[in-house]
Amino acid sequence: APKKPLVFATRKLPDVIETRLMELFDARLNVDDRSLTKADLIEAVKTADVLVPTVTDRIDAAVLAQAGPNLRLIANFGAGVDHIDLATARQRGITVTNTPDVLTEDTADMTMALILAVPRRLTEGERLVRAGRWEGWSPTFMLGRRIWGKRLGIVGMGRIGQAVARRAKGFGLAVHYHNRKRLHPDLEQELDATYWESLDQMLARMDVISVHCPHTPATYHLLSARRLKLLQPHAYVVNTARGEVVDEAALTRMLQKREIAGAGLDVFEHEPAVNPKLLEMDNVVLLPHLGSATLEGRIDMGEKVLINIKTHIDGHNPPDRVLASML
Ligand code: 8YV
């Protein structure tokens, strides 16, 4: 029998996916789910035919320089590929795939959870009850801010941004968006979304800003200190995309000075590290990168990885190939 391709998964994956990987390939799994060091990654790319990394693995030029001749595919478990040096992979003839679509709706749900949780003081109220500090109701007790009827500005109107727009409309928010490219008029109309060519102008007019663009060299600190200053003091910032898109230090300073009203953050610039000043604030909701973290979603993501590996090995173009030029 021909030798099965060696597929190296860097992290523990859902059981059904690991079973399938073992049936189809010579699978090297990380049953203890320990986070791999750079040395571990280099060891893996030396011999693997296929690498299945996640967001916690930095596949940079130094790692790729050590890749053996067999490594032809990096089948990322996740949509975002900012941890992979796409240009170097391409130079070395290594195909990169990701897992789009299947996590769109879950991430949009989590975004809505944050859009509601911060202005309505959900986790703050919950902490108060748990701490036994709830002394009774009164008409002016713990008032949040109304969400319906307010303006939501979506930064990055791709699949996830659009899924958020659909939900937001149902919650009575007026949807605005900034994107490099304006949507097709039919889609724009369907989403009932107002386009802003100028991000700066949109930021100055919104009540809630939600980030949905990928992290690329062009979007690093897209919400810079200067741009954050354009926000109104009653505005909220939500980020379920990548921490690097927002200048976290500048955002933290503005929250401290109450120059904006609050923030809902699922992602951070230096995960799993979180700026300790954020931990002291009541007007922020902080989540440990849970946007796509549903059991169903993780299985769907694993199935996408399997399809990408299989089609590539069978000599076809994998469905979810990523090129730097697409980002
Ligand atoms: C995952 C994500 O948790 O897909 C992404 O880009 O951030 C999340 O869905 C993670 O990337 C898995 O590698």
UniProtKB/TrEMBL annotation:
Keyword Cytoplasm: no
A Pfam short name: 2-Hacid_dh_C
Keywords: NAD, Oxidoreductase
Residue stretches making up the D-isomer specific 2-hydroxyacid dehydrogenase NAD-binding domain: 112-291
GO molecular function terms attached to this record: glyoxylate reductase (NADPH) activity; hydroxypyruvate reductase [NAD(P)H] activity; NAD binding
Family annotation (InterPro entries): D-isomer_2-hydroxyacid_DH, D-isomer_2_OHA_DH_cat_dom, D-isomer_DH_CS1, D-isomer_DH_NAD-bd, NAD(P)-bd_dom_sf
Record-annotated D-isomer specific 2-hydroxyacid dehydrogenase catalytic domain positions: 18-322
A single GO cellular-component term on record: cytosol
SUPFAM superfamilies in alphabetical order: Formate/glycerate dehydrogenase catalytic domain-like, NAD(P)-binding Rossmann-fold domains
Family listed: Belongs to the D-isomer specific 2-hydroxyacid dehydrogenase family.
Name the UniProt record assigns to this protein: D-glycerate dehydrogenase
Organism: Telmatospirillum siberiense
Source organism phylogeny: Bacteria, Pseudomonadati, Pseudomonadota, Alphaproteobacteria, Rhodospirillales
